[in-house]
């Protein structure tokens, strides 16, 4: 057995490249990430022990939108350091006309779970959350997807 050291990176592929690229070139620096690669068809940001890449889809799929229930990615969640940071992300998102699925709210995934859920211009679901302490790994906490923690 090993102990992983977090998630190294997530790469997504988007249609409507120019609009999506502009969206991510605004969002990711706001999250404290720095662009380390700036290609014609791919951008790559690193920050907060996380990397996130966005690439142009194959031309055959240029008219498609993200479908959350399709096989593959369901959504990507960035971890914030405070509840206030989640609120700041929400305020920023409203300023760039992101589609908000739900504003900052408490959730049942872990004790103290707080998040904002939104979409990029082609519907890819993204979330920013905050979970205090050890979350579901806290002593005496039992994970229950229904949100009922004991």
Task: Please tell me about this protein's structure.
β3 and β4 (50-56) form a beta hairpin. Helices cover 18% and strands 31% of the residues. The longest helix is centred in the first third of the chain and has 14 residues, at 17-30. The protein has 150 residues and is of the alpha/beta class. The chain is built from two helices and eight strands, in the order βαββββαβββ. Strands 1-4-3-2 form a four-stranded mixed β-sheet, with helices on one face. Strands 5-8-7-6 form a four-stranded mixed β-sheet, covered by helices on one side. It has one domain (10-58, 75-137): 2,3-Dihydroxybiphenyl 1,2-Dioxygenase, domain 1 (Roll). The relative contact order is 0.17. It starts with 9 loop residues before the first strand and ends in a 20-residue tail after the last strand.
Concise summary:
This protein has 150 residues and is an alpha/beta fold.
Task: Give descriptors for this structure.
150 residues, alpha/beta, 2,3-Dihydroxybiphenyl 1,2-Dioxygenase, domain 1, four-stranded mixed β-sheet, globular
Inertia-based shape: globular
Looking at CATH, which topology would you report?
Answer: 2,3-Dihydroxybiphenyl 1,2-Dioxygenase, domain 1
CATH superfamily: 2,3-Dihydroxybiphenyl 1,2-Dioxygenase, domain 1
Mean pLDDT across residues: 92
Number of helices: 2
β-strand percent reads: 25-35%
Main beta-sheet annotation: 4 strands, mixed
CATH architecture: Roll
Q: Which CATH C-level class is it?
A: Alpha Beta
The count of β-strands is 8
Whole-angstrom Rg: 16 Å
Given the helix and strand composition, which structural class is it?
alpha/beta
User: What is the string of SSEs from the N terminus onward?
Assistant: EHEEEEHEEE
Q: Would you identify the regions where 5 or more consecutive residues have pLDDT less than 50? A: none
Query: What is the total number of structural domains?
Result: 1
Rounded to the nearest angstrom, the distance between the terminal CA atoms is 29 Å
Helix content bin: 10-25%
């Amino acid at each position: 057995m090993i102990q992983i050291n977090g998630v190294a990176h997530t790469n997504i592929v988007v249609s409507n490249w120019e609009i999506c690229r502009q969206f991510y070139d605004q969002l990711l620096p706001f999250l404290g990430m720095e662009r380390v690669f700036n290609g014609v068809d791919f951008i790559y940001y690193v920050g907060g022990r996380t990397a996130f890449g966005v690439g142009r889809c194959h031309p055959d799929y240029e008219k498609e939108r993200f479908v959350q229930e399709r096989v593959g990615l369901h959504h990507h969640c960035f971890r914030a350091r405070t509840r206030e940071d989640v609120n700041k992300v929400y305020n920023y998102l409203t300023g760039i006309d992101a589609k908000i699925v739900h504003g900052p709210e408490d959730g049942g995934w872990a004790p103290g779970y707080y998040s904002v859920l939104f979409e990029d211009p082609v519907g890819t679901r993204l979330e920013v959350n905050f979970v205090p302490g050890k979350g579901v790994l806290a002593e005496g906490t039992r994970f229950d997807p229904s949100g009922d923690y004991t």
